[in-house]
Amino acid sequence: MVGIQRLVVQLELLVRTTGASSASVYLPTPWDAHAPVVLVHAGDLPPLSELATPDAAAAFSSAVLESGRWHGAEVALDALVPSASGDGFLIAVPLLTSLWAGGVRDTAAALRHPGRRSEDQRQASPVAGWIGIRLPAPPLPGEVAACAHALASTIVCVYSVLTDPLTGLPGRHELHGVLRADLDRARRRRLPCSLLLVNPIGLDGVNDRHGRQAGDSVVREFVQAMHGLLRRSDVLMRYGGAIFALPLGNIGLDSAELVAERVRRHVLGQSFLQGAVHLQCAVSVVSSGAEDVDGLEPLDLLQRANEALGLARQRGGDGVVTWRSETGVATGPPTDRLLGIFTGRTDKDYRNMGLLWDVLQALSSATGSADLAEKVVDRLCTVLHPTRAALFVADDAGVRLLYGQQRPDDGAEPRALQAADITEAERAIVTTAVVTTAVRQDTVMTGERSNLIIAVPLVTDGRTLGALCFGGSPSVLDVDRTDLHVLTGVANQLAVALDREHLAELHRVRAEHERRRLQAELQDLRSQQSPIVFQSSLMADLLVRARRVASTDTTVLVTGESGTGKEMLAQTLHQLSGRRAQAFVIVDCGAIPATLIDSELFGHERGAFTGAQQRSSGRLAMADGGTVFLDEIGELPLDVQSRLLRFVQEKTISMVGGTRSRKVDVRIIAATNRRLEDDVRAGRFREDLFYRLNVVRLHIPPLRERPEDVRMLAEHFARASAAEQRKPLLGFSVEAERQLLAHSWPGNIRELQNTILQAVVLSEGDCLEAADLHLPHGAGAVPQAQRPGATPGRDLVVPPPPSPGLDRAEPFAPAWVSLRDRLAAEVQAASGARPRLSLPLGRWLAHELVLVAHEQAAGVGARAATRIGLPQTTFARRLRQAETDRSLTSRPATWDAVRSALAAVTAAADLPTGCLAASVEALLLEVVLAAVPAPLAYAATLMGLSTPTMKQRLAARDAVA
What we know:
The relative contact order is 0.04. Strands 15-14-13-18-17-16 form a 6-stranded antiparallel sheet. Strands 2-1-7-6-5 form a 5-stranded antiparallel sheet, sandwiched between helices. β5 and β6 (88-94) form a beta hairpin. It is 48% helix and 15% strand. It has 6 domains: 2-160, Beta-Lactamase (2-Layer Sandwich), CATH 3.30.450; 172-324, 2-Layer Sandwich (Alpha-Beta Plaits); 346-505, GAF domain (Beta-Lactamase), CATH 3.30.450.40; 537-701, Rossmann fold; 704-786, Helicase, Ruva Protein, domain 3; 804-960, no CATH class. By secondary structure, it is an alpha+beta fold. It contains 33 helices and 27 strands. α11 (346-365) runs antiparallel to α12.
């Protein structure tokens, strides 16, 4: 419409410029017999008789083109043709191809109809249409040129309405019209229908070497060469870019292939840019026989020809590629990524691009699956005008409505759909689309009105996540065959976005669970003042005695060097006793000034001494019903020791400055890092108090006497410090562990804890190195063989003997050996990397086993579970975990070899009885311990286990052995 309006304006300007009484333009469309012609008039008087009606104009044009004469006079392209009415003239409108080709030399001969067959190969007529001008008197010869100059802009404007400005050829919209007419004719007359796509190869190189203008010239020369080959009845069209379409009408496949081969050879024999350029030519053919044209659309022909052209381009134009309808054979890279989306119709293409743009905006701005569904459905309703639209997601229970919108016919505000609003017919169509992964459409009756329902599946990575469904009256719903391609593209992008949102939601949930777990773990670590962590037999024996004493009210004396954990043991005794719900009061006897110890222990009355502004009950009274821990009891002055002796004997206290005694129920635990026997002999500690306190004595050995606890304590402090500092931590390097075990730790556990905390704070990686520990080299080192309490086998795990299955001479044995070799290679690759790779091989192996068994059992869970020796419920749970893990976690490229070896093991005919899953885990444990005997934390990581669980597995294995 815009082009026609511009044409009218140009004609009115022409009338005013030339003084004409009227002017007319006639433009036929020879490439589409069903398309309307263009016939426009302007001026005060009626048009010339030759252009009065479309039929008269067609008859005039046909007569001139057939004979090249009008009323006995020779007609030339660049001359005025007198009208039969005698008061006007007609001027031929040339094709744009004639304009950029420099016109034709024999203009009169060019207007004559060329002969058939061999003569038909000559240049087609350069006339596109006619312009008629009614003038009161014939123009002078000089005015002819002025008139032609005035018409130049009008000619280009008129013809550009219908043709491509570069080549002067009809475009994609006209191509759709021609193909539709050919298919309709083929269906009516039971004829075949054929189409050629032609693509010169090498134009990109021409643009790079010679420039864009040279490339355009080559395109024009190519079109001119094609016109020199084709019959006059053939219409070459520009499909897009450097791809040209040649509808062959209702001819068969054999004839179409002959034409295609002639076109290909003709282009190969041409040179362009004055012999500087030679091009290859890819040609594809699609032909539908008379028996299979029913139901075909122009888009189907273009899609098949496009696929065949992609294969022809892939072969470099070496031969014609045919898409055969009976076999459907032609697979190549697509040459048109917008096939079905870009139709050549300006209004529809604008709408499609707008829809895709809006969907992209929705994908980028949505904050969740529900928000994304609402935005896409709302945009779909605005563009396609359905009565209702909805987005469904698929799960194990079927299809579920995520969001839907209903638009009433009376123009009321749209409302959100509920699950109860979905009809059974709609749900059935959506379910079919999800199951078949194909677009489904059907007409259903809603009351007395029929509605068209269309469901487009959401497919990504081979999985169907749901469907986009909309429906409405067929007369209102603005959807045709090409729109299904657009909607499929929208659905695919929507599926990717929904999948991404689903994974993001899973990640958010898992991150939140992990955050809460770490927060709880950190809170637990903070609440546990001194957790008991040990592995040595010395500490095990000590804890056995402590448990026996804890349930009594016996006074306990805890001895040990500074930093060995005496306060921790005292707290443990309190927690294991019946007083755990009461107070645990700590009195640091070495930190209280000697003048205030009496008051701190027993309390004081107001005014008992200078500064006693108020009454204080004292620490012993505060511990009434609970436990009092007297730390560093050896620092008490002798005068306070006498009063404490009375309390220990009678459990009564009297405040400083007070006159009355008070009985309290307190359990006493004392601790010292000194040898009280030496203080008794030196007179610094009362002998009777010593014997009163030394009822049960628990001695904590120094850390140098229990080196097997060093590694476990270091791992414990590293985890706690890393959680507190919010740092990732996996363990210690080999050299760091060596230095930890070699150091004598004179400060005992307190020194170890501070050393690990410092290392975690200063470390920049996820593995603590020896340099992070800052331990003195060679200072305080104790050889492993000379360490007291060292237990052989605890510092170095000896690998178990080979599996009994390896001695079998049946197919299972070599498969088992291959699996062990593959696992050893994976462990060696992970441990040999710097830094070490923390791969959960144990978890991957367990998941891979159930996946392989499930595949070999053809999806029968009971059979797969029996094959690998697992209960069916356990197998089903592990299978769900394995499928989730496989989709979220990538494996190294070498893992495929492990999977193949595992498949060979599970498929062995002589598979031993028993639990194969347990045997596979034991095999990996054997391989890990052989390759990585230390540190245990890293070996546990490779097994996919925590360190405590790893220790339990080792203990269970040693017990069986």
